[in-house]
Amino acid sequence: MELTPLLLLAGTETAAIEGISAAGASAPSRQFTAAADAELLLLGPAAPRVHALPPLPAGVSPALIGHVVLRELELLQRLQVIDLGAPVAPAVPHLRLPEPESSGPAACLSSGAAMPMLRVERLLQRADRFCQHWPAGSPVLVCECVPGGTSTALAVLEGLGIAAVGLVGGSLRQPVHGLKAQLVQRGLAAAGLQPQAAAALADPARARAVLAAVGDPMLALAAGLCLNLAGQGHQLVLAGGSQMAAVLALALALAPEAARQHLADHVQVVTTAWVLSDPGNDLGLLLARIGQRWGVTPRLQASGLRFGSCRSPALRDYERGFIKEGVGAGGLAWLWEQSGRSPETLAAACDRAMESWASG
After folding, report:
1. How many CB atoms lie within 10 A of CB 235?
2. pLDDT digits over 174-192, tens only?
3. Domain 4-359 falls in which CATH fold?
4. Taking the domains of the chain in order of start, what are their residue ranges?
């Protein structure tokens, strides 16, 4: 059975805070990031696209990596794009969920009221329905595009009782751990979910309360997919870094205690070598703390893709720390390697894609 790649698009008004994200050089440009990345992932750099990629401080969107992998592995037709309320809808075929599941970006996490509880419940129910008729044995690779999403991931992890400040990465070359910690503290306090208060809730209730207070729609749907598909015995690749660690933590919190190890055995977080070598985060330690919290051993993999020998300056910017992950790049590059192809051939294919883009 062939793997199915999913791309979940969402938004959070947290992304509008000055200095919080490099997924677009300005807050207005970040309104278009999810739509533009979805179009680049599906259509590629040479095709006309409705939404231009927002300007970045350096580098090029990791959606380029994903497009090359999906095209060469003949998986583009299997890609499913789901819009959970991105600020701008992508101009490619996609599933748009009904209200309130897709009612625009979540409010800023600092408000302590990011989403109504009804929206959280409907997203979790949607995940359950989505998985009911999933083909037996079909593995799933989950990608995301949520500007500001590492901040909501940090907030959710802290709300679930994981000491995550300083461990969660982000799109900026130099992390802003202090700014994010302040926002998280304000949001959890506003919701009455300081660690000691949150500990009084049973895990599933805490997960829902934290999602509503400081989360985003992608985290809710992805956690529900993770819980349901792993429960049915499907293998899942959570393609990303800190945000996918938060998805796993939420799924474990929502799962019955007896089902948690089974869930952990069927899910792996897969990221890039740039995330693992980034001094601004520690994904391995973060997952270890998640595992300790729920008594499981999370699985972490990374692709071997590097761009140090590429001709394209935008690709070499990855090696300088300007771009590290996004739009499932690590998981898709790892999938390339699982097909028996080398990271070097993928780097060369990305280099050629950049050349055709420049000449197109």
Report:
1. 16
2. 788 899 999 999 999 999 9
3. Rossmann fold (3.40.50)
4. 4-359
